[in-house]
């Protein structure tokens, strides 16, 4: 089940999107400013989103919050300061629970526990097979508690429950089984030398890893980071995003139930400037892994360099091009481009946020993209059939609305959407801009929301140049019937992943990471193991060797 869920993310999400209600309830947006300075709706903008679910009373989540403290040395404990912070329900803005707020002192306690577990504890000295068995038991427990974990994720994050329960939680189990399989297959080498020497190349655990995960995919990012670190025999301190601390605390408890020794995994909830900075700059942390914005990634890199020059991997922002050629099946292209952008409320680092459409099919594409957006079901993410829940919090909500205003003011055509939905929570209408130019902010900066920018191009060379004219290089999509065109684009686009006639295919074995300012290193697949291993050469003289 988990393998199927991991390997067919696109097809399952697309099927769910197509099966969603096509009903459309009227919604009237607030006035927007036209490029000429006047106010009102832009010509031809008809708002008819399916919003019934957003207007109803929120559904009571089918789960209790049991873990809100820091996890240090195998125990849930209060923060040293005694402080807590609220984690909010994005559907309403109301408090779900108060969570222990870790700071530098708590990070130090967690690092001390992780260091002791690495230097003195059983984890790195345990056989690789036994480490593998613990990860396999952990995967079993994730599957057993699938629905509770998914409910926590939806409650704290706002993503559709069906997405969490049917796709993301099974993917976490699949990832853990994948890394369990690697644990006893991390091999060294014996290499020949130019002389009588026996040379071994050892791959050793790096030590104590610091890991900082984001709020858009809390469970999956936990798995992407914790899985390879544990498979390689490391211990770790993980800082959750302050917006979404609950699911990581829950599954960390399951990890200990699976037999993980104390101190191997420690979880600190807190804020970036305090807990995150303390972890990135800690002198006893050997490696730091961060997923988040490019600006914050630069700070993490600087803190790591200024402290003990610890190893760093970064998975950062993107402004991914989705290139649709003139030979495309327009209906199929519209559906895939819609998914590439609006999936997870648009809160996806690799979202296809620059939709490049060939001029021959541009007008048809825009009209059909508008129709698809108007059919998108936005509402309570616990309700069956909902495609889009709320944005994560008021900060992100207001940031997206500012970008929408920027698009209108810069002269792009607001095709549909452009405003909030309802009066409670952080819901935003699926929004589309056409006539977008490369120099506009909505075409250059990462919006991280349900805003599709559709750009027109004439030929292959032009779109390659424009697609690459970005400081980011995380991912790209290509939609064409021509193998030659696909081959040209996949080699020309300066990005870490190119999806051809598909998008957001995230298998456990496929490496993920970016070029340019989209990051350093790769997550998932065999390449992720390199992030958590040191390479050591051992050279020994040989006397009277029978062979060299």
From TrEMBL:
Keyword Cytoplasm recorded: no
Organism field: Panicum miliaceum (Proso millet)
Any GO MF annotation of the entry: aldehyde dehydrogenase (NAD+) activity
TM spans (from-to): none
Protein name as annotated: Aldehyde dehydrogenase family 2 member B7, mitochondrial-like
Entry annotated with the keyword tRNA-binding: no
Keywords from the UniProt entry: NAD, Oxidoreductase, Signal
CDD domains (alphabetical): ALDH_F2BC
Lineage start: Eukaryota, Viridiplantae, Streptophyta, Embryophyta, Tracheophyta
InterPro entries attached to this UniProt entry: Ald_DH/histidinol_DH, Ald_DH_C, Ald_DH_CS_CYS, Ald_DH_CS_GLU, Ald_DH_N, Aldehyde_DH_dom
GO CC list: mitochondrion
Short name of any one Pfam family annotated for the protein: Aldedh
């Amino acid at each position: 089940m988990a393998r199927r869920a991991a390997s067919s993310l696109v097809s399952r999400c697309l099927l769910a999107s197509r099966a969603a209600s096509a009903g459309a309830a009227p919604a009237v947006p607030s006035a927007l400013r036209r490029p000429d300075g006047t106010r009102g709706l832009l010509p031809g903008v008809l708002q008819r989103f399916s919003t019934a679910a957003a207007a109803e009373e929120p559904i009571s989540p089918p789960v209790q919050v049991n873990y809100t403290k820091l996890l240090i040395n195998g125990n849930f404990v209060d923060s040293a300061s005694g402080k807590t912070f609220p984690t909010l329900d994005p559907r309403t803005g109301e408090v779900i629970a108060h969570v222990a707020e870790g700071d530098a002192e708590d990070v130090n306690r967690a690092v001390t526990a992780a260091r002791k577990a690495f230097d003195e504890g059983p984890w790195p000295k345990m056989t690789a097979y036994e480490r593998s068995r613990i990860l396999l038991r952990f995967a079993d427990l994730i599957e057993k508690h699938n629905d509770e974990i998914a409910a926590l994720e939806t409650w704290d994050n706002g993503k559709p429950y069906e997405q969490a329960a049917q796709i993301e939680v099974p993917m976490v189990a699949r990832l853990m089984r994948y890394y369990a399989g690697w644990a006893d297959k991390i091999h060294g080498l014996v290499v020949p030398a130019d002389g009588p020497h026996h040379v071994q190349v050892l791959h050793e655990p790096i030590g104590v890893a610091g890991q900082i995960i984001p709020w858009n995919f809390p469970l999956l990012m936990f798995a992407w980071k914790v899985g390879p670190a544990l498979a390689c025999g490391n211990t770790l301190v993980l800082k959750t995003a302050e917006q979404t601390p609950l699911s990581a605390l829950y599954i960390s408890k399951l990890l200990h139930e699976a037999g993980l020794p104390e101190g191997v995994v420690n979880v600190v909830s807190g804020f970036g400037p305090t807990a995150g900075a303390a972890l990135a700059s800690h002198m006893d942390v050997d490696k730091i892994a961060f997923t988040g914005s490019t600006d914050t990634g630069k700070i993490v890199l600087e803190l790591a360099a200024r402290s003990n020059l610890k190893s760093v991997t970064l998975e950062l922002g993107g402004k991914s091009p989705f290139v649709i050629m003139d030979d495309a099946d327009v209906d199929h292209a519209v559906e895939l481009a819609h998914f590439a952008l609006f999936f997870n409320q648009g809160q996806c680092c690799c979202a296809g946020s620059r939709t490049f459409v060939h001029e021959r099919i541009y007008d048809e594409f825009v009209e059909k993209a508008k129709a698809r957006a108007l059919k998108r079901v936005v509402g309570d993410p616990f309700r069956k059939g909902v495609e889009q829940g709320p944005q994560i919090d008021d900060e992100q909500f207001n940031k997206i609305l500012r970008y929408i205003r920027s698009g209108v003011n810069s002269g792009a055509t607001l095709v549909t959407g452009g405003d909030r939905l309802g009066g409670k929570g952080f819901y935003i209408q699926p929004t589309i801009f056409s006539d977008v130019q490369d120099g506009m902010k909505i075409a250059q900066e990462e919006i991280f929301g349900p805003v599709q920018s559709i750009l027109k191009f004439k030929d292959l060379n032009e779109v390659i140049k424009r697609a690459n004219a970005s400081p980011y290089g995380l991912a790209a999509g290509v939609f064409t019937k021509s193998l030659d065109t696909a081959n040209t684009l996949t080699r020309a686009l300066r990005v870490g992943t190119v999806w051809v006639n598909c998008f957001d295919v995230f298998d456990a074995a496929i490496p993920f990471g970016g070029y340019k300012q989209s990051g350093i290193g790769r997550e998932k697949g065999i390449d992720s193991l390199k992030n958590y291993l040191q390479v050591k050469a051992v050279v020994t003289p040989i006397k009277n060797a029978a062979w060299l």
